[in-house]
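Risk register update: the risk of archive-format incompatibility is retired. Evidence:
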Amino acid sequence: MSTETFMALVGLGADRPGLVADITDYVTGLGGNVEDSRMAVLGAEFGVMLLVSGTLDQIGAIDRQLEQLKAKTGMTLLCRQTKSPEHYRAQAGIPYTVTAQALDHEGIVRAVARALHGAGVNIVSLETTAYEAPVTGSQLFRLEARFDVPPGVPARRVRDAMDAVAEAENLDIDMRALIGQNG
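Archived output:
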């Protein structure tokens, strides 16, 4: 039986140099290990999500002393104990990605998310960006999502849902299985 405990540590605060160093110094200084992370600047805010592992005592110390990190970084922070990544992967299903591109307009993320949900799949990650077309300067939009198709859900159902949302929202959509890749 593993003695590893897992915690999700999430935060949001004004962006500045050194935030990643401050957060990771805090975690490792209390014996935790960063297993997985997502970090990004959105507007002028810095968002961070970490999966931290350690013993129950180490994870407990990270949670109990969180006020110190809040004071140092000025970030709003939250910790929550969670299950191991292996627990999730055992139940996940077949990983896929979908990429959608179009002239930017309201509702693209909502439409793709609703279609995936309606097809019975779980979105694992989703990233979007708006950018200017090189020649015309028109505002373009790109969405990339990773999702898991669980056992019993036919991939054809998901492809049909993506085809329908592509037509309704005027999107170029590409859906691919990630068979043989570590999701």
